Amino acid sequence: MRHPHTVVGMITLLSAFGSLLSFRVRSRASLELELVALRHQVGVLRRQRPGQLRLLSADRLLWVWLYRIWPQILNATVLVKPATVINWHRKGFRLYWLRRSRRPGRPRMNREIRDLIRQMSAANPLWGAPRIHGELLKLGIEVSQATVGRYLSWRPKAPSPTWRSFLHNHLHDIAAVDMFVVVTATFQLLYALIVLGHERRKNIHFDVTQNPTQVWLARQMTEAFPWDTAPRFLLRDRDASYGQTFRDRVQAMAIEEIVTAPRSPWQNAYVERIIGPIRRECLDHVIIVDERHLRRVLSAYSQYHHHSRTHLSLDKDCPEPRLIQPPSAGTVIAFPQVGGLHHRYERRAA
Known about the structure:
alpha/beta
């Protein structure tokens, strides 16, 4: 590297000599640009430390700008080579067009609209781009149908509704049956059968026995669904008690059986869900004496379950809907149910 004082002297001599030779040939603007370039180089040298030369981004931008408006400025460069200035200019040219072409084509759609399109597509698997595009137009969102198709969620070729919508559309046609064991005071095992309707989580039928044979189970189906009240589907597990006689009776009643997978109680979740509260809210607090006692206790809990107990799945309502009583209806009175284990609260006029 050259010594700063030597370089400053060379710049001064070049400036004076060049001015004398071409004063009459060059215009005043070119002389001013050359003077700016020379003074800038002197300023760069003055701010450097001995034995070190560092150029800032502003220095490079100034040289690129000078080269762009007057290429002959390369003749006055002493600190850097002319090829270096040309390389700076080409690099800036590439960065400029890279920035301009970063997002070609149309501007991106609003993120809220994209999320709305994906939400509609996921919630309505039977809808395509035309249907979703029509809904967006009704909401005042002006987009093209091709744009809607670009943001649709991926799905297989044969669309299928979700399990939630499928079950909701078939709740009134589905019933579930299951049994659970109750131990008596004398350590005998009693089997309680529950038939549950999915539409309002209503306990359609229940009974108790010591020996749940297939003949007894078949008779319970007849008692649970008299005349033309049989559902279309009956959901049950793979218990061996549901023998051929039971299956023949169900088939004769035009009921289609849906058998859960082995060791999969969650596939019959609604009836399993009602067995849990029966144990936790009733049977765990009562010592059962015999079949008659168990049948009476289950009957009392069934009345409480249908007419008083609120359910999360029914929006805090009962299987038999309860009216909302305003404060003006009177004083709150408690009515004991299930032997005092639970209470029903109503307003009565004084």
